[in-house]
Amino acid sequence: MDLKKIPAKYRQYEIFDKVKDEIQEYLKTYIILSDLKSESLKERHWKLILQKLELKIYYNKLSLGNLWSSNLCYHESAIREILNQSQGEMVLDEFLRGLKDTWTEYELELVQYQNRCKLIKGWNDILSNIDDHLNAIQSMKISSYVKIFEEETLNWDDKLNRLRNLLEVWMNVQRKWVYLEGVLKSSTDIKLLLPQEYNRFKIIDADFISIMKKTSENPKLLELFQINGFQKQLDRLSDSLSKIQKALGEYLEKQRNQFPRFYFVGDEDLLEMIGNSKDAKIIQRNINKMFA
């Protein structure tokens, strides 16, 4: 109803102002009621609203009539505050649900490696996804709406940080394994020249292949992450591989000290030459580098 269209001769009466005020209040009440249909309002928010309205009634017994007769306009400010809170909490709730869905279903991308096992690819994408979610969690932690989700937020913060640490170790283990596997498995003489390192690598090799086989059978990242002792196993492999790499480096340094021309070739080429000393083609391929 457009009250401005009512003739002026009627608008001069006191009853007109009274009716106008009542209509405006009805319209305002209707708007509030319409806003109270928001999906963001949960039971906890309705309990707060009922307290503000001083309605002593259970949430699931609430009727439209109860709300209409509770002077919503008078309590509009308090209701708006609760509505804003519910909408802010809904944004955080949806983010956490999405976070859970993403990482619960996240599967590692694998690629076949020399008929030995499948290796993980796309490390940067995985770590980037984790970093994006960790940054979002940091923003959540300072939100004024985070209180009800604080425990879940902190749990995800801790879980993703630990997951990132595990992946960084795993990535380094895979990189070291690929390098040493290529060096130690391709050389016919290396087991005689470096028997201790070769035998240590055989044990590590079996452990790593076992890990990657399990990963291939079930590539869901969070389920792998929750395997008891997995982080310690990767830490141990990383430490052992580093020791073998160090021993190889020291061995190559001794060879270069004995024959300085070896400084003109890289570690992999030098190991290939030393480990295949009877293969004339391999020696010839690298000898030009030493006397170029």
UniProtKB/TrEMBL annotation:
GO CC terms of this entry: cell cortex; cytoplasmic dynein complex; cytoplasmic microtubule
Keywords attached to this entry: ATP-binding, Coiled coil, Cytoplasm, Cytoskeleton, Dynein, Microtubule, Motor protein, Nucleotide-binding
GO biological process entries: cytoplasmic microtubule organization; microtubule-based movement; mitotic spindle organization; nuclear migration
Keyword Nucleus tagged: no
Record flagged with keyword Metal-binding: no
Residues of the Dynein heavy chain linker domain: 2-292
Protein name (record): Dynein heavy chain, putative
Major localization class: cytoplasm
InterPro entries with a match to the protein in the record: DHC, Dynein_2_N, Dynein_heavy_linker, Dynein_linker_3
UniProt family annotation: Belongs to the dynein heavy chain family.
Any coiled-coil regions, as ranges: 227-254
Subunit structure: Consists of at least two heavy chains and a number of intermediate and light chains.
One MF term in the entry's GO annotations: dynein intermediate chain binding
Localization, UniProt: Cytoplasm, Cytoskeleton
